[in-house]
Amino acid sequence: MNKIVEKQHFSENVVKLVVEAPMIAKARRPGHFVIVIADEKGERIPLTIADSDIQRGTITLVIQAIGDSTKKICSLNVGDSLLDVVGPLGRATKIENYGTVVCCGGGVGVAPLLPIIKAMKQAGNRVISVLAARTKDLIILEEQVAEYSDEVIIMTDDGSYGTKGLITNGVESVIQREKVDLVVTIGPAIMMKFVSLLTKKYEVPTMASLNTIMVDGTGMCGACRVTVGGKTRFVCVDGPEFDAHQVDFDEMLMRLRSYN
What we know:
Elements lengths: L1 E10 L2 E7 L1 H6 L5 E5 L7 E4 L2 E3 L4 E7 L3 H8 L5 E2 L1 E6 L10 E7 L3 H13 L3 E8 L8 H6 L3 E6 L6 E2 L2 H11 L4 E5 L2 H13 L4 E4 L15 E4 L2 E4 H4 L2 E3 L5 H8 L4
Parallel strand pairs: 9-10, 9-13, 10-11, 11-12, 13-14
Antiparallel strand pairs: 1-2, 1-7, 2-6, 3-4, 3-8, 5-6, 14-17, 15-16
Helix pairs in contact: 5-6, 6-8
């Protein structure tokens, strides 16, 4: 059992939970994720670790209430416990001094992007963060992102905050004004697809963290399989990060729709 020690609502359907998990907190690296089960009847939900505190023995998770299981997790309060938190899983982000790195996150994708932004900055990179959402109320973790970014660009679909437009507009504005050595993108699959198409046009290396359907998290079930560079890969053990220009996003989007 993993006790919830903090809870914060970012919006009506997006919740931050700080959970006791001392061994995971000690071992996790940027890019790692966990699989969470709320109770005996709960589904396995993969969630990227947004932050950790080794001294407190906690990890931070950001959850968007979409289905029954995520709604159940979001309904828990301080003092309640999650039945299981398993991890850290996946491969950690490759962090090095690339030069100028543009980190772009859409919606709750900003949460798993935050530790990457922090690590990229600590590695000596110039970090430009582009955050996007449908409206101002859905922009999360702006202050925390700004702490480790040389510049933060906000894009909203409705123009209620920052600049009106899509995340690709913000990324392209940076590419057109200066040399970008790497783009990191995390968010809805359709968003990552179009970021990838944009950066491929400009020949900028791009890394995407994929959010496929996942069951066991060990590569045995095959639910998270994707095609990368013409070969089958499993997001849970080979990822979650891949060369975005090699990912078959159309196939991935089709598989994500299988439960609609």
